[in-house]
Specification:
There is one protein chain. Helices cover 41% and strands 14% of the residues. By secondary structure, the protein is of the alpha/beta class. It folds into 2 domains: 3-198, 3-Layer(aba) Sandwich (Rossmann fold); 237-413, Rossmann fold, CATH 3.40.50.720. The protein has an 8-stranded mixed β-sheet with strand order 3-2-1-4-5-6-7-8, with helices on both faces. The chain has a 5-stranded parallel β-sheet with strand order 10-9-11-12-13. Helix 1 (13-22) packs across helix 3 (53-63), helix 4 (95-104) packs parallel to helix 5 (124-133) and helix 8 (197-228) packs across helix 10 (262-269).
Length: 416
């Protein structure tokens, strides 16, 4: 196997292409429909903010082991790593997967391996991918091997975790799984576990659903604790002293393309059975509204209030805003006709304050929505000198309340 064609050069596709190209064992052809993405990679640059990735891409492009283009090309292995967004009615949008598979058909030849990395509902490999690949006229499972190998990485650590995390490899038959394992073994140092394609699809969804349900429990406990006058952060810390308890932490909602989306893929396939999963999604999806209504209540009686939101990404220390609850909080507050200023040290966009000082100036309420490291060093005295009313709402439990209270702030914490 000498040539790999990776379809989709986003958060997973580009790092995957770079990891294979970095081995020096393959020529990797990266394919994307976004012309700007292709041009950037052709110039040895990356559109993603991810440690080590830019260096890998630049080196591989210079060495000729990685090329980027807008159309597929003949290869020994094809990897599909395109988005699978959620529709407005909470269904998986598989249009990118289908289109990618269709574009591969003219290039398929005997002994090819096709791997689906995109996160998909169970049975997508069997019921959607295989029928499209069969249009090649080649026998699936013998002439064309097929597997599902879902990504299991954390933004901000993608390159490291691609190499060191374990992988689930779901083949449509044993030879497909074995061939896929051999391919990934060229750079993966973690364990590789073989199963069937549908089990691999379900396992990936279960991983993120487990976390979503656990976070929903924490968010529900936060709202209960607020009603009862309990500090949920202290209670969770104490409960987690139990050797078999691992409660997650509450927050303003759940974002990202995985945890906020993947559980719906299970609900889609088994809507009557997935009652707990659906309820967890509804609880987590309701948190931005809960946060916004708490803010509204706190600002009653203030004419033309200004709210400062700190953190717009979906999680700490990344520049990824996909499904960000912070954006939902912002939209709700703007619907109340509040003046809303947003600041995030990881982002520079036209609709955000360019500096922290600009965002804080004249504010009536400062809200911590994302626990970026940069916010841990906020100086209460400096903030006090910029705002109009000294109130801070900490949804991530990252501020030392005593220090802020000493500076004259009223400190509100989610779940307290």
């Amino acid at each position: 196997m000498k040539t790999i064609c990776v379809i989709g050069l986003g958060y997973i596709g580009l790092p995957t292409a770079a990891m294979f190209a970095s081995t020096g064992k393959f020529r990797v052809i990266g394919v994307d429909i976004n012309g700007n993405t292709v041009e950037a990679i052709q110039n040895g640059q990356t559109h993603l903010h991810e440690p080590c990735l830019g260096e890998k891409v630049a080196r591989c492009v210079t060495q000729g082991t990685l090329v980027a283009q807008s159309e597929p090309a003949p290869a020994d292995a094809f990897i599909i790593a395109v988005p699978t967004p959620i529709t407005s009615d909470k269904q998986a949008d598989l249009s990118y997967v289908k289109a990618s598979a269709e574009t591969l058909v003219p290039f398929l030849k005997p002994n090819n391996l096709v791997i689906l990395e995109s996160t998909v509902p169970p049975r997508t490999t069997q019921d959607i991918l295989i029928p499209i690949l069969a249009k090649s006229g080649l026998e699936i499972g013998r002439q064309i091997l097929v597997a599902h190998c879902p990504e299991r990485v954390l933004p901000g650590r993608i390159c490291y975790e691609m190499e060191h995390n374990s992988r689930i490899i779901g083949g449509i038959n044993d030879i497909s799984a074995q061939r896929t394992k051999q391919l990934y073994a060229t750079f993966v140092k973690g364990e590789m576990y073989l199963t069937d394609a549908t089990s691999a699809e379900m396992a990936k969804l279960m991983e993120n659903t487990y976390r979503d349900v656990n976070i929903a429990l924490a968010n529900e406990l936060a709202r209960i604790s607020n009603k009862l006058g309990v500090n949920v952060w202290e209670a969770i810390a104490m409960a987690n002293k139990h050797p078999r308890v691992n409660l997650h932490l509450p927050g303003p909602g759940v974002g990202g393309h995985c945890i906020a989306v993947d559980p719906w893929f299970i609900v889609e396939k088994a809507p009557q059975e997935a009652r707990l999963i659906r309820l967890a999604r509804e609880i987590n999806d309701s948190m931005p509204s809960h946060v916004a209504l708490t803010i509204k209540q706190e600002l009653e009686g203030i004419a033309s209030p200004k709210v400062t939101l700190l953190g717009m990404t979906y999680k700490a220390n990344v520049n990824d805003c996909r499904e960000s609850p912070s954006l939902k909080v912002k939209n709700i507050l703007e619907s109340f006709s509040f003046q809303v200023a947003a600041y995030d040290p990881m982002l520079r966009t036209a609709n955000m304050a360019s500096t922290l000082e600009e965002a804080l100036a004249g504010s009536d309420l400062v809200v911590i929505l994302v626990n970026h490291d940069a916010f841990a060093s906020l100086d209460p005295a400096k903030v006090a000198s910029l705002v109009r009313n000294r109130t801070v709402f900490d949804t991530k439990n990252m501020l030392e309340a005593a220090a802020w209270e000493k500076a004259g702030f009223k400190v509100i914490k989610l779940g307290c």
